[in-house]
Amino acid sequence: MKFTRTLSTLSAVTLLFVLAGCSNEDDTTVDVKEEPLMTEKADEKPQQAFVPKTAEQKRLSASGEASEVTLTGTIVYKEMEGGFYAFIAENGDRYTLQKLDKKFHRNGLIVKITGMPMPDLMTITQYGTVLKVDSVEILDASRVIGNASSH
């Protein structure tokens, strides 16, 4: 008997909440003017304030034209997107190397590299700025990981 009474009370309370939720009176709503979330304006350039620029990109955008740079850093092998050789400069800037001679395909090789940064070019690697390599000078090969033909 006690169980049946508790069950009846619980059912009544549940029914009360269900009916209260279905009432037509909605005192808790606020009129909100709906504005489009996205607008298209052909004459405005997209804002890129949220993307921090590297020192090299700032220098390139200030001068208006790209110029050759010489950087010191490490060639590293990255296994994403099928594998590629990248370059991490001493200041931490990252580059995807374009036209790197195969004899420099050595993970951990420390080099001085000269090339043309191409900040507006995108690749499938999406790893830093693309650097079109003109010349490479080996500074230290003692930190190479594995052999040259491992990748």
TrEMBL record:
Superkingdom of origin organism: Bacteria
UniProt keyword Signal, yes or no: yes
Extent of the signal sequence: 1-25
Keyword Signal attached: yes
Keywords for the protein's UniProt record, in alphabetical order: Signal
GO molecular function ontology, one term from the record: kinase activity
Protein name: Ribose-phosphate pyrophosphokinase
